[in-house]
Amino acid sequence: MYICKVKNYQELSRRAANFIAAQVILKPTSVLGLATGSSPIGTYEHLVKMYENGDLDFSQVTTVNLDEYKGLSGSDMQSYRYFMNTHLFHKININYSNTYVPDGTEQDAEKACSAYNELLHKVGPADIQILGLGHDGHIGFNEPSDHFEDETHCVDLTETTIQANKRFFESEADVPRQAYTMGIGTIMRCKKILVVVSGSDKAQILKKVVQGPVTPQVPGSILQFHPDCTIIADEAALSEMDI
Questions:
Q1: pTM listed for this prediction
Q2: Three-state DSSP class for residue 159
Q3: What letter would DSSP give residue 140?
Q4: Confidence (pLDDT) at 160
Q5: Quick one: three-class SS letters along 181-232?
Q6: Which tens digits make up the pLDDT trace of 66-78?
Q7: Which residue, 187, 196, 112, 188, is CA-closest to 155?
Q8: Are the C-beta atoms of 166 and 73 separated by less than 8 Å?
Q9: What pLDDT score does 14 carry?
Q10: Is the pLDDT of residue 161 over 90?
Q11: Could you say which DSSP state residue 21 is in?
């Protein structure tokens, strides 16, 4: 693991965007693994600005997203497809048919997961996979468990995740209880991994991910074994570590 310590979220977002931009410039046909949630929003804003300034061309890029809520369509404002459209896809020149998110409307979990796994095998491992980090150490929707899942699967969301995500919904009752997510194996097969972590509320779990034992109880800890994993974190997120 390489840890890049920055002052604040603004600098984190700029550094992360530069990391991704370099990949796209060096390989215009890159496959980018994308994440949602609050952590990467600033990164996407910087990427949009780079595109608007004529510095980036996304026309040959393919994207694959980590996860999607089961039961939500792409037109639902709380879906991750809607999130990506709003924050990135509709603001750049990417070929929309080359942007992929699990199908949340597919109620047959086995069918939905099989279809996404087939797609991921077809496009190949992502050149870069962006990750946020949950308060319980989850990456994607790979929640704390007694084992690491290999490929795309349907997961029951933990109470910690439901509580963390209820701010995006009108009420806690509206938060989906299940989601489709890439598996840990798929994530680990990505060529590069970029983790963005911000805020003092993530300090304890980030320390466990980086310095603790590798365990499915802290899913992000598996990243210790990835050969090319970069963590960009602000001072607050690194406050529990002597870095």
A1: 0.95
A2: helix
A3: T
A4: 86
A5: ECCHHHHHCCCCEEEEECCHHHHHHHHHHHHCCCECCEHHHHHHHCCCEEEE
A6: 999 999 999 999 9
A7: 112
A8: no
A9: 99
A10: no
A11: H
Q: Give the whole-angstrom CA distance, residue 208 versus residue 161.
A: 18
Domain positions in the chain? 2-234
Task: Out of 3.40.1710.10, 3.20.20.70, 3.40.50.1360, 3.30.450.40, select the CATH number for domain 2-234.
Answer: 3.40.50.1360
157/143 Cα distance (integer angstroms): 7
**Per-residue DSSP letters for 74-136?**
TTSTTSHHHHHHHHTGGGS---GGGEE---TT---HHHHHHHHHHHHHHH-S-SEEEE---TT
Triad 219, 236, 181: Cα angle to 5°: 25
What contacts 240, CB < 8 A, 6 or more positions away? 203, 204, 206, 207
pLDDT at residue 149 tops 90: yes
Residue written as token pair 């938060």? 175
Write down the pLDDT at residue 81: 98
As beta bridge partners, residue 155 has 179
Residue 140 near residue 117 (C-beta atoms within 8 A): no
* Residue of 129, 161, 131, 132 lying closest to 145 (CA atoms): 161
Encoding tokens for residue 177? 């209880």
Amino acid at 177: R
Least confident among 18-27, 87-96, 165-174: 165-174
